[in-house]
Each structure stands twice: as C-alpha cells, then as structure tokens.
C-alpha cells in the first residue's frame, strides 16, 4: 500500500515548526538520509584520538566496517550516531571547510560538527585477549554493552524485519573478531577500567538479542543478564547502580528475580511499533512468543518493580510505514502511535523513538523511512505526553543515550 508522506524540505519543516530546535531537526534528517564523509573530512579523523565505529550491535547503512567516525556532536551537544550511506542515496555530506568539520547539503554548509573523543580504555586488552572497546562501547555519558549479539527469533526466521543483528554479527566476527557472547569477567574488568576516567560516564546500558530458551521461555536470557549485571555490580560500592537493561518483555516473576539479584535500576522492553497489526507484521517473533497486548501488560507490570520513572519502551519509528503496511498516511500512523504512547504513559511507561534506518542486510533494506516532518511531529508528541504525565527520562536522555530525538527535547521544553 502506498503511504502518503510529507514532502516538506528541511528549511520548510523549520519554518512550519519554528519552536523546534534546528540542530535536533538536523540530527533527525541526518539519520533519515545518512552521511557521507569526504576524503577531506576523514583526513582530520585520527583513530588514536577519535572514537571509531565497528562495535554496534546493528550494521552500518552502507554495509561496511571501516575505520570511520563512531559519531558526531553538534554545537549544542546533540549527538548523532554516524550512519555512513552510499553517495547515490543522497546523504548529507560531511566535509572540511576552512578548517572546520561541516554538515553540508546541495553544496550548502548547514552547521558545524565535531568527532567524538575516544575513551582511554578503548584499545586496552583483557587477559582473555579481547579488546575492551569490543566489550563496551561509549555513548555521550554511558557505557554501552551488548552481552549477546545473536537473536534467537532469527533461528526460526522470525526476526524483526528492520533488523540485521545476525548478519551484522557474522560480518563482525569475520572482520574485527567481535565475540558473539561476552564473558562476565571481561565485562567486569572493562567497566572497572572505564570508570577510572572520572566524570566521563554516568550510566551503563545493556542490550542483546532475545533468547527464548529455558524451563520457562526467556529464562536463559534472564539468567545470563543476572550473571553479567552481578559482575558489573562488583565495580560499585552501592547495592544499586545506574544501569539500564534493554531486554525481551519477560514475565513479572522473571524481571523481579533479576531486580532482586542485581543492581540494575531501569528497564526497557522495546515494543518497536505502536500498533498491534504492524507489530504482528514487522516483529513476527515477538508476536508469536509474547504478543502485542501481553508486551504492553508486561511493561506496565514492570513499573510495580522499578517505579513509574524507571521503565520505558522504544519504537523504531518509520518501520511501520514500510512494505505492506495497513496505514495509508503518515498522519494515520502518527495518530495511532501517540494514542498508544499516551495509554502507556498513563500507566507509568514512557516511549522513546529511534529513527528507523534501512540497513542493507535486513528484510526492509529497500524500503523508505518516514519524512522529516513525521519524525518532528512524533518527537514533539512523545515529549508532550511525558510532560503531561509528569514522566522523566533521565536514564535514556540526550546525555546517556543520544539516539532519541524526543528525549533530546526534554532539555528544551
């Protein structure tokens, strides 16, 4: 079905939404369209000083693993995870102009950007031989750990259609010796080393592929997270520490067991799309093993354990518009998403959105994401819902994660 999309340009969107921060709109559009680094821009990229990509749990937009920038920072501190795209896809061009790194479009300089500085621990090796940056990568103020890079939904061909986690793992194992599964000792020692950089990190995030094995479905996933989180807990003097877990929507009993046996302090169950029909189509594994209504119920159940400001869910916004969608327009999809987000927020669950990036090794590789106006309206709507329900998002905001345009707005509105 053809989806009616907004055709407003970047400048037209800024004119229509004058109170929306320009640099957050730019971040959204850079994710939508991707980036292309000129040779001049890359000439000032220094791998001994700057953070380079290669450790993401998901693949790159152009399918390549090379020594390129991990991310950019804009003038106001907005972070943009780098998504290099083929030049023929009409990406933004990152160029060096008069000695400054600039984001350009159609030969027009839009704004200045900066490479991220690499943490001190990145190149150090563990006794096991693993490189620390392959154990924990860095976001603005948090450590990002992917203990298990295999999702078992793909074993049955039921992975989420926007996802390339398994194909990316195969490429990483071949090209950069990325481990598929981390050892708790390696995680503990990497976190301990990273925390020596006083003031740099304020939180830890863990995310991995789903694992439905165990006496009860997903018991093995929770058991493994407990091992990893207990190892991390040895780096802290307090019983509870600032850690966010992104995992499958498990039962209340399972997540209570994890909460009681670790120091984790916030929880995310990514529902991916806020519509039951699209959830069933886009996320067949999640739909078969758990289901949309049960996923929502488990999110709400989790607030009884973690608290109303400690549970959220992420959506891969735009994937609901791809392929054989039931939606006929972006406005129809937006209305549905915001209604569902409001229902979750009324029960203490916040929603954050990620701009969907079509990746070449995913089933939706050749589909279109949403328009810039769609993402701007979604970001405004989600932030307004949080404000109205008095929900905070400090554990997943622009400082800790930097991947959610709507939580970027929490510092501006």
Keywords:
single chain; 7-stranded mixed beta sheet; 2 domains; 6-stranded mixed beta sheet; 413 residues; 13 strands; TIM Barrel; alpha/beta
Can you describe this structure?
- The protein has two domains: 34-115, no CATH class; 132-411, TIM Barrel (Alpha-Beta Barrel).
- The chain contains 13 helices and 13 strands.
- The protein has helices at 10-16, 22-33, 39-43, 165-176, 184-194, 219-233, 252-261, 276-282, 284-289, 292-306, 330-345, 372-388, 405-408; strands at residues 35-37, 71-74, 79-81, 92-97, 100-105, 108-115, 137-138, 142-145, 203-207, 243-246, 266-268, 311-317, 350-355.
- The strands form two sheets. A seven-stranded mixed sheet has the order 7-8-9-10-11-12-13. A six-stranded mixed sheet has the order 1-4-5-6-2-3.
- Helix 7 (252-261) links the parallel strand 10 and strand 11 (266-268).
Beta-strand level of the residues, as a percent range? 5-15%
- Element pattern in H and E: HHEHEEEEEEEHHEHEHEHHHEHEHH
CATH architecture assignment name of the largest domain: Alpha-Beta Barrel
**Main β-sheet, spatial strand arrangement:** 7-8-9-10-11-12-13
What is the H level of CATH, i.e. the homologous superfamily of the largest domain? Aldolase class I
Please compute the radius of gyration using only Cα atoms: 20 Å
**Backbone structural class:** alpha/beta
Taken from the alpha-carbon principal axes, the silhouette is globular
Q: Report the biggest beta sheet as strand number plus sense, adding barrel if it closes.
A: 7 strands, mixed
Tell me roughly what share of residues is in helical segments.
25-40%
Distance between the termini: 36 Å
The strand count comes to 13
Average the pLDDT over all residues and give the rounded result.
Answer: 95
Count of DSSP helices? 13
CATH topology of the largest domain: TIM Barrel
Domain module count: 2
Which CATH top level class of the largest domain fits? Alpha Beta
Regions with little confidence, pLDDT below 50 for 5+ residues: none
């Amino acid at each position: 079905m053809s989806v009616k999309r907004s055709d407003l340009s970047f400048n037209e969107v800024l004119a229509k939404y004058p109170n929306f921060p320009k640099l957050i709109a730019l971040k959204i559009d850079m994710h939508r369209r991707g980036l292309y680094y000129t040779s001049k821009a890359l000439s000032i990229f220094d791998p001994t000083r700057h953070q380079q990509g290669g450790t993401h749990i998901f693949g790159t937009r152009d399918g390549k693993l090379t020594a390129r920038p991990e991310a950019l920072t804009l003038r106001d501190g907005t972070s943009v995870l780098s998504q290099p795209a083929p030049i023929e896809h009409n990406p933004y061009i990152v160029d060096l102009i008069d000695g400054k790194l600039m984001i350009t479009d159609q030969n027009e300089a839009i704004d200045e950007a900066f490479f991220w500085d690499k943490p001190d621990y990145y190149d150090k090796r563990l006794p096991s031989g693993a490189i620390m940056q392959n154990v924990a990568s860095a976001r603005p103020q948090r450590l990002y750990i992917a203990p298990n890079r295999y999702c078992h939904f793909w074993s049955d061909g039921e992975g989420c259609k926007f996802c390339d986690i398994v194909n990316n793992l195969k490429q990483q194992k071949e090209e950069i010796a990325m481990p598929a599964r981390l050892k708790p000792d390696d995680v503990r020692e990497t976190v301990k080393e990273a925390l020596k950089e006083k003031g740099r990190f304020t939180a830890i995030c863990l995310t991995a592929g789903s694992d439905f094995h165990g006496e009860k479905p997903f018991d093995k996933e929770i058991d493994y997270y407990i091992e990893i989180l207990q190892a991390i807990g040895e780096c802290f003097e307090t019983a509870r520490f600032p850690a966010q877990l992104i995992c499958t929507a498990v039962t209340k009993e399972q997540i209570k067991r994890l909460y009681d046996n670790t120091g984790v302090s916030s929880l995310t169950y990514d529902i991916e799309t806020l519509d039951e029909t699209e959830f069933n189509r886009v996320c067949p594994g999640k739909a078969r093993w758990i289901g949309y209504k049960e996923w929502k119920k488990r999110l709400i159940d989790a607030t009884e354990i973690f608290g109303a400001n400690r549970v959220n869910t992420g959506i891969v916004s735009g994937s609901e518009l791809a392929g054989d969608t039931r939606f006929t327009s972006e406005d129809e999809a937006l209305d549905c998403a915001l209604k569902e987000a409001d229902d979750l927020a009324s029960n203490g669950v916040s929603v954050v959105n990620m701009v969907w990036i079509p990746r070449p090794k995913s089933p939706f590789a050749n589909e279109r994401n949403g328009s810039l106006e769609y993402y701007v309206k979604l970001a405004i709507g989600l932030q307004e819902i949080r404000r109205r329900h008095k929900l905070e998002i400090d554990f997943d905001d622009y400082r800790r994660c930097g991947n959610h345009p709507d939580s970027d707005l929490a510092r501006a509105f």
